[in-house]
Design goal:
Length: 583
């Protein structure tokens, strides 16, 4: 770490970017965390987020959406100073950091369209803005505004036509919902960031010919263009530099193209360019009291080191049959995949002792009031969430006893959010956000054994006093500098499709998690005679299973067992403890 370092942090409605620079502008580290809107975030949440960022720095600039009034600035300054008590602190709004990233200390106009939308202009010491009045009164041209309009259109179409529109079907598919009432329930619980994330569906619908969505995009681009013209006129600017920021403008080329065309009609002297540099660099520049020139990260950890480690992982090696796949018959392919599953059993057998250690660790923690957390990314994260979600209906456990934590959050369960795995800080923040504490167990799942999100989660869990388990499918990984309490490396070998760890590695991981959770539940007395006596009989299948279970255990016919369960509110354990007279 350099003696003089500058940390820049910019938070908005969707994400928080950060960058750590030395005094020459060289990048020492950078990353991304969850949303950080000052108006929508509690002090506790912001303190947890700041705690996940680099601690040793001499200057800090934190610029968040929603930091507008003097009271807002005072609150953010207090939180920032508490997180970095030895650093010189600068705070403000994400508009300020965005402006600094896009135009430095120069004059011009910055157009931001992400979850919300706002246009800021500066000429000399004078600043003007249009938009940015929040999602209830303003933010026209932002993601939330567009998505709210689109959602209302889907309901209106159904009310008039009695059928789902193609857009409604696309939104249901995006959210993995099955019917319109479920969408209504989702909207009533979703925050504005979750709603705004539906924006890509709107743009795909427009590209597919949805006239209403095309008009919506056109109208909102026109609004942003008009806001820009208004700001330029108030500042007396004709030949103006305009920079575009925010996810809608930088990730949806069509939207930016509409804006450019409409602005050219109204303000032909404008020079419009995209700003792809994170606002965190602007935050760092403002913190350093002068514009920082960002250089190439020479001599800095750029990912090459971890990339070399990944390339050497067992899960990334080429399978001996990989070059023959295209030439095999369907029968030969199926036979090959079936044969490969033998490696899964062998891998699990090789780690029986380690699995047993992990079961004992988990059972002891749960019996003493602790909880089990699975932390993973991609396939590993989904498997952890799956195993955790099965505990309440299978064993009658509280929903928080076993929890799955996946990089990228709930969206990553049905969509690819693979870049979310690259942040150690996000993993650390997730542990703090879930309230991990001493007495808990965190099981990090990473097929390659080097996923930053997982490693960050384990490190933070250890700091919080939790016990740790590391589950990988890469025995050749570099040894942990400070070994976790239990380390399980399943030797599943190279995948038939190189690097596709949803195959053998995924299967072995699924079975390993089954072993950890189920054996722990057996140790806790949740299984008797091979039966899951604490199951929640919430549907026809489970009630039939409960009836048969009680009938066999007490020597009753099914009708009597059914009556006994009804009398005990379908509590199997209670029914077993209330044997009818004469039985």
């Amino acid at each position: 770490m350099a003696n003089h370092t500058i940390l820049g942090v910019e938070g908005g409605g969707t994400k928080t970017d950060w960058v750590l620079l030395d005094d020459t502008g060289r990048v020492l580290g950078e990353g991304q965390l969850g949303a950080a809107n000052l108006k929508l975030s509690t002090d506790e949440y912001l303190a947890q987020l700041f705690a996940a960022l680099p601690r040793e720095t001499t200057e800090v600039g934190v610029f968040l959406a929603g930091c507008l009034s003097e009271n807002d600035h005072a609150r953010l300054r207090r939180l920032t100073a508490a997180a970095w008590p030895s650093a010189r602190v600068s705070v403000g709004s994400d508009c300020e950091s965005g402006f600094a990233a896009a135009l430095g200390d120069g004059d011009g106009i910055v157009v931001i369209s992400g979850t919300g939308a706002v246009v800021h202009g500066r000429k000399g010491g004078r600043v003007e803005k249009s938009g940015g009045w929040g999602h209830i009164l303003g933010d026209r041209g932002g993601g939330y505004d567009m998505c709210r309009h689109a959602l209302r259109k889907t309901i209106l179409h159904y009310d008039i036509e009695g059928t789902l529109s193609p857009l409604a079907s696309a939104i249901l598919a995006e959210l993995s919902l099955n019917e319109l009432p479920q969408l209504v329930d989702w909207v009533n619980q979703a925050d504005k960031m979750q709603v705004a994330r539906l924006a890509p569906v709107i743009f795909r619908a427009a590209d597919a010919g949805d006239v209403e969505m095309r008009e919506l995009i056109e109208h909102r681009a026109r609004d942003l263009a008009q806001f820009t013209v208004s700001v330029a006129q108030r500042l007396g600017m004709e030949r103006v530099e305009v920079r575009l920021l925010g996810g809608l403008l930088t990730k949806e080329p069509g939207y930016a193209a509409h804006y450019r065309r409409l602005l050219a009609e109204k303000l032909p002297g404008a020079n419009v360019e995209l700003c792809t540099r994170s606002g965190a660099f602007g935050a760092a520049a403002l913190a350093s009291a002068e514009t920082v020139s960002v250089k190439n990260a020479g001599g800095v950890l750029t990912g090459l080191e971890t990339t070399k480690e990944l390339a050497g992982a067992t899960t990334e090696q080429v399978h001996p049959c990989a070059g023959k796949l295209e030439k095999m018959t369907t029968g030969e392919l199926v036979a090959l995949f079936v044969e490969e599953e033998d490696r899964v059993r062998a891998a699990l057998a090789a780690c029986k002792d380690r699995l047993a250690e992990a079961v004992e660790l988990i059972a002891t923690a749960l019996s003493n009031g602790g909880r089990l957390f699975y932390a993973g990314a991609g396939t590993s994260g989904r498997l952890g969430v799956l195993d955790a979600s099965e505990m309440p209906p299978t064993f009658g456990t509280p929903s928080d006893l076993v929890q799955g934590v996946i990089a990228g959050g709930v969206a990553a369960l049905t969509q690819s959010v693979e870049t979310a795995e690259d942040s150690r800080e996000a993993g650390a923040l997730a542990m703090a956000g879930r309230g991990v504490r001493a007495g808990d167990v965190v099981c990090g799942i990473a097929a390659s054994g080097r996923t930053p999100f997982v490693l960050g989660a384990l490190a933070r869990a250890r700091e919080l006093g939790a016990r740790t388990i590391f589950l990988t499918c890469n025995p050749s990984r570099n040894a942990s500098p400070q070994p976790w309490d239990v380390e399980i490396d399943l030797p599943t070998g190279a995948e038939i499709v190189t690097g596709s760890t949803r195959l053998k590695a995924g299967t072995a991981t699924k079975v390993a998690l089954n072993i950890l959770s189920t054996c722990a539940m057996i140790r806790l007395g949740k299984v008797r005679g091979g039966a899951m006596v604490n199951l929640r009989a919430t549907n026809v299948k489970l009630r039939d299973r409960a009836t048969r279970m009680v009938a066999v255990a007490l020597g009753l016919d099914t009708n009597a067992a059914h009556e006994l369960l009804v009398a005990n509110h379908w509590d199997v354990v209670a029914a077993l403890c209330h044997r009818p007279p004469g039985k």
